[in-house]
Amino acid sequence: MEARHWLTQAWEDFEMQKREARIVAVALLAAMLLHPGSLAGKEKKKKKKIKPEELVALHLESIGAPQARAARKSSIAKGIGEFKVLVGRERFLRGEADLVSEGAKMRSALLFAVSDYPGEVVAFDGKKSDVAQLLPGQRSEIGRFLYQYEEILKEGLLGGVLSTAWPFLYMEERKLKLKYRGMRKFGDHQMHELEYRHKRGGSVVKARLYFEPQTYRHFSTVYTVKVPAPMVAAGVGTSPAGRAAESSRQSETRYTLEEYFANFRQIGGLTLPSFWKVRLSVVGPGAQVGLFTAANLDRTVLEWNVSFESIRFNAPIDAQAFRPKIQ
Questions:
Q1: Domains along the sequence of the chain with CATH
Q2: Tell me: the pLDDT tens digits for 67-93?
Q3: For the chain, is the Cβ count within 10 Å smaller at the N or the C terminus?
């Protein structure tokens, strides 16, 4: 058993070295195509924007070889999740989490053993997306957001490379609309920023994706939505306090949904994250509508953290798994 474990580890190390070499080769090829005839002038090259397709090609190589990527038809990831309120009504919960995907289908669940917030389940069955209700007609802040802006689920963005629905795995057939925005400061680091334009042209969701410059791994996706306030004229004779309250209600609400990925490890020939953070920030009048809002605050920030303990490929998945039911 020890010998086989040693051989398995050696083979995985060898595969990783091959993949890193491919990434370097693709990067050099991209540089040569952009600057034919010479590799001089490194400073100028750094300022030169690469094409979105070139960045995506490097990103795909960071996941694994084409054969390994194609071999993953389905995926089941299971682990432990935490929920906490960073700004709002204080709450902390721990529970079980999973992310199941098959082709374009995906379901993510984080379940807690409490009656007032049993958890979150979001799903896309290949045709329709849905989000589980906590009670009839009631969803949490993130549940309402993902239900209303369903393109995030339908286009396979949520969950990043953990899901087989990740849109960049289907570049040619989906004809993605992308714009490379250059190197941008993201937190304490410089990252490649890629703008993703949703298929539905009228979408109000702005999606920006961030990739590490050395590894080209997908580090984060940030979705932003601005909802204008309804224009309601102030009543004649309204008191100063009343006008101030009415003015507050008429300001816009800004939603920011952030995904972060970390703790990458090799699984079945692919390099995938085993940690997934999701953070939702609501600023404005909309922050006063939800399960975890606090009185007199115009801001709510919620966070879900998941550590996946096991990730399996190509196990049989029942079609019922892609229904958003809290069991």
A1: 2-48 (no CATH), 69-322 (2.50.20)
A2: 999 999 999 999 999 999 999 999 999
A3: N
